[in-house]
């Protein structure tokens, strides 16, 4: 059998610039669609039509199809034979299981963060805590328009928990935490909190307590407070999803 020399070999298609560009495009589409789903711009139960998305995003249908498959693998959409793709509303089981992991990861990271956090990270955490309080005031004076309160709360919540994960110093834990973010749309928490000032006040107070424990370097208290905070969030989301609709076609128990 003749040997294939280096000069005779043909590069694998996977390594060609064209294939790399296609992969980058699919990854970009996944990011865009996931962010819109997470933010509630594409609500749970919505149909995602390949042709319409391709036209809107200025691409062909093939990368859109691949992006939807990626989103299915993440659990964000479901592909239904002969019908298309639809954004999933997480089931109560999804929420309980995802937030159980959230609690473990946040508790572990928080315990480490209480010992390892830098002054710069603590300043960022304090700024996020102030933004939580601003969101409460925004909601109290919103007169029905909660857009500003929602934006401030999302910014505060994202930054606060990201800083804790970062300060914990475990990059593998951080990767696991980031992956969990795709499992439950962020806007569900706001749906649960945003129509009740007292709930939002309680949420802000919980974050203030966590900040205080980290600032004091109390690792045990930080772990406990974060674990309890995530458990209460899980319970609230379960009730919220049940209220949205027991008969939603995207529910799976």
What are the SSEs and their pairings?
Blueprint: H1 17-38, E1 47-48, H2 50-57, H3 61-74, E2 77-80, E3 84-87, H4 92-116, H5 119-140, H6 147-168, H7 171-180, H8 187-193, H9 197-215, H10 219-244
Antiparallel strand pairs: 1-3, 2-3
Describe the overall structure.
The protein has 253 residues and is mainly alpha-helical. It contains ten helices and three strands, in the order αβααββααααααα. It has a three-stranded antiparallel beta sheet with strand order 1-3-2. The model is unreliable at 1-18 and 246-253 (pLDDT under 50).
Tell me the distance between the termini: 57 Å
Count up the domains: 2
Overall average residue pLDDT: 86
Radius of gyration (Å): 22 Å
Annotated CATH topology of the largest domain: Four Helix Bundle (Hemerythrin (Met), subunit A)
Strand order of the largest sheet: 1-3-2
CATH A-level architecture of the largest domain: Up-down Bundle
Question: What form results from the Cα inertia axes?
Answer: globular
Q: Structural class of the helices, strands and pairings?
A: mainly alpha
């Amino acid at each position: 059998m003749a040997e294939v020399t280096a000069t005779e070999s043909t590069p694998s298609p996977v390594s060609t610039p064209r294939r790399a560009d296609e992969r980058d495009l699919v990854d970009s589409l996944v990011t865009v669609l996931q962010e819109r789903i997470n933010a509630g711009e594409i609500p749970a139960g919505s149909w995602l039509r390949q042709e319409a998305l391709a036209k809107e995003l200025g691409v062909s249908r093939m990368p859109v199809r691949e992006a939807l498959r990626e989103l299915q693998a993440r659990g964000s959409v479901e592909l239904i034979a002969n019908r298309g793709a639809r954004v999933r509303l997480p089931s109560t089981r999804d929420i309980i299981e995802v937030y159980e992991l959230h609690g473990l990861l946040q508790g572990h990271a928080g315990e480490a963060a209480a010992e390892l956090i830098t002054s710069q990270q603590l300043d960022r955490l304090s700024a996020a805590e102030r933004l939580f309080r601003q969101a409460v005031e925004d909601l109290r004076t919103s007169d029905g328009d909660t857009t500003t309160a929602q934006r401030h709360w999302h910014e505060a919540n994202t930054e606060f928990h990201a800083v804790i994960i970062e300060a914990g110093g475990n990059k593998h834990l951080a990767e696991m935490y980031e992956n969990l973010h795709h499992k439950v749309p962020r806007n569900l928490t706001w749906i649960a909190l945003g129509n009740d000032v007292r709930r939002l006040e309680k949420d802000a107070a919980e974050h203030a307590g966590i900040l205080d424990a980290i600032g004091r370097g109390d690792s045990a208290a930080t772990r406990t407070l974060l674990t309890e905070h995530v458990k209460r969030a899980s319970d609230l989301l379960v009730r919220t999803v049940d209220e949205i609709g027991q008969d939603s076609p995207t529910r799976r128990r």
